[in-house]
Amino acid sequence: SAGLPLQRIGTRITCLQEVDSTNLVAYRLAEQGAVEGTIVIADHQTGGKGRLGRRWESPAGVNLYCSVILRPQILPLYAPQLTFVSSVAVVDAILRTTNLQPVIKWPNDVLVNGQKVAGLLNEMSAETERVDFLVLGIGVNINMNREQFPVDLRHPATSLAIEAGRKIDRLQFARVLLESLDALYAAYLAEGYEPLRRRWLAHSAVMGRTVRVTSGENVVVGVVEGIDEHGGLVLSCAGGRHERVLAGDVAICNE
Ligand code: BT5
Description:
Blueprint: E1 13-19, H1 22-31, E2 39-45, E3 64-70, H2 83-97, E4 102-105, E5 109-112, E6 115-126, E7 131-140, H3 160-164, H4 170-191, H5 193-202, E8 210-215, E9 218-227, E10 233-236, E11 242-245, E12 249-252
Helix pairs in contact: 2-4, 2-5, 4-5
């Protein structure tokens, strides 16, 4: 357990040199009965996954790629709440290891100076009434340099090292992240969603801003009022109408 006083998350850690995707490995382990809190960490991913079949650039030796297995006893429709455990934990870890100011862009991006440093990918196995397990995938660009980013990125991206102007200790970052994940998940189990939602809102890049949310052909523009109990973004739209979006890509509009 890396000598950490962890309650759940990180009590079992599988470290691998090279994988297709830590999410795929963790999903397979979970199907075989791996306990809650099991973590898969890899130095290199050959098939790192983003959302909607996109690719997550995962060069060797520089970044953090990990996946956490959770088995919360909640209804599947509340599972998106757990995305906020990982985004708040990543923000926490960046605040504790650098003097950078990270913010969260709904649903799953962590930005520093307006550029993406981390992406999160949750996957779930569930029946109608019950979550069997969740896999929280976390990718953080730690020491990646400019030349290692693909040229055709959807959004500007960066790494902690580029922004901080110094090399970051990957192991130290991983330890701090596990501590934050463990503490936030314990608080979620004990106190529920509300404290987590408040912390997410405190770090949100979109709260009170005008945004454009695109999902497929569907586009919604409005001012962000918060997030609901299903992880959805609540918007106030033209004419005072309220809308809720459960998935999509957010662009912050210039005001
Ligand atoms: C995400 O998707 O942001 C989720 C990324 C999750 C990655 C972790 S790593 C550990 C675990 N195992 C996995 O296989 N996945 C998870 P999305 O919002 O769809 O963003 C993907 C888009 O971000 C791509 O289409 C690129 O444009 C861009 N991108 C790719 N690699 C990037 C990187 N390293 N840093 C910043 N942007 C990147």
